[in-house]
Amino acid sequence: MSAAVTSIAASPGPDVVEHPRLTVIGTGYLGATHAVSMAVLGYEVLGVDVDQAKIDALVAGRVPFHEPGLPEQLAAALASGRLRFTTSFDEAAAFGDVHFVCVGTPQQRGSNAADMTYVDAAFTELARRLDRRALIVGKSTVPIGTAARLTELVQSVAPAGTEVEVAWNPEFLREGYAVQDTMHPDRLVFGVTTPWAEQQLRAAFRPVLDEGTPLVVADLPTAELVKVAANSFLATKISFINAMAEVCEATGADVSVLATALSHDTRIGGRFLKPGLGFGGGCLPKDIRAFAARAEELGVGQAVRFLGEVDGINLRRRQRTVDLVTELADGDLVGKRIAALGAAFKPNSDDVRDAPALDVARMLHRAGAVVSVFDPEAMPNAAKVYPELRYAPSLTAAVMDADVVVLLTEWQEFRDADPVDIGTLVHERRIVDGRHALDADRYRAAGWEYRALGRPVQSPTVELTVDERDAFRRTA
Ligand code: UGA
After folding, report:
1. What is the pLDDT of residues 9-21, one digit of tens each?
2. How far is Cα 83 from Cα 76, in angstroms, rounded to an integer?
3. Reduced to 3 states, what is the DSSP secondary structure of residue 374?
4. Ligand 1: does its nearest atom lie under 6 Å from the Cβ of 31?
5. Which domains are delineated in the chain?
């Protein structure tokens, strides 16, 4: 294990390139955002990917996924002339002083551990070509110990040998806020083994540091751990409130009120304390599993065994949502028309990796329901994974003649929907709010039977007249 490194903020040493040229290897979610943001911040950046189609899209100014604000920043970065893309590692090695590796670490098939194939390949391909002093900075989320292992690998294959150093700079960006989180992060973490690496990284983040962003300088394993610890904490907080939702259901208590009351305690806070269908996406689920797997290997499995429980609570929410829909469908899903609102793992994203929404839609379909899915952005991705589901072209089309509506991703469009209006379209005014995103009183006042996980059952307060219902159906 490397020793803790003392932070040295003094003027750069002779080897430090004050305005380094950057490469960003892997232009997926993290890498594309990082490359674009660093160019906007004034650096010369070369984005590198083995996927020619991705590179072609980015060169043409197209972001291959949905991320608010990123297309505009990509256009600005390309127009500045500071951002270019390539598939050539030769070009990357010749160009960069600091190389950021941003490739994915998905869950391995048939195991909870992270698949390191892409990280290892990126480090190896680059290092083989490095014949001068350079810093390779890992940003991918990796098992603890990876940076030390890669340092050995890199220095054994690089023509420049120990002149090439490895640092770790974990990334905390959230999908949907990627540009903001990259340009104005809550904090920066630099995992380094030498003062040179720290100073070179400082030079690579000068504009971000100049705006007062807190910097934590750490050894390599701590930097790796910060990332998985942060995601584990967030996942645990969400599963904590969802565990309370289970208790609420057994006691008649209301988890929404409970969460609000807890959130006023500033030691607890309200963020990531939103009960509902739970967490998904390409990060939290796989990161807690990989962390637990790595901890077992390190002989400290017991310390994080609770993460298995966190995962279990989270997955139970999906079945519980299906159960609530079934209850509202008079106990039988076969042939029932269910409007599933949302497919993305969270709003403002078209990402359906481990999406609770899509999982619930699939479970309803498998139980015999006729499921009509609508999501403002994620339908093309959803249809690739589950072509067997029906995809409606709009919210109104999805809810038309539905026996039960289930809200699965809290898009603003769904929050803004008028319960009176959509009440005229459905067959039965019955809704499961899987994200605690709707105003239960408004729905009940509009004659809906409203249910949410962890909230007590109450009857609708009014019934719509047949005339009201027909009038709206004609205009919709
Ligand atoms: C998460 C972390 O928040 C980022 O800091 C981290 O950089 C990123 O993973 C990553 O490792 O790359 P992200 O996956 O974009 O970011 O999504 P979050 O905003 O964290 O939401 C995760 C899931 O938790 C979503 O499915 C969301 O619906 C759910 N969630 C969130 C809740 O169920 N309740 C809450 O109160 C908050």
Report:
1. 445 566 899 999 9
2. 9
3. strand
4. no
5. 22-218 (3.40.50.720), 229-314 (1.10.1040.10), 316-475 (3.40.50.720)
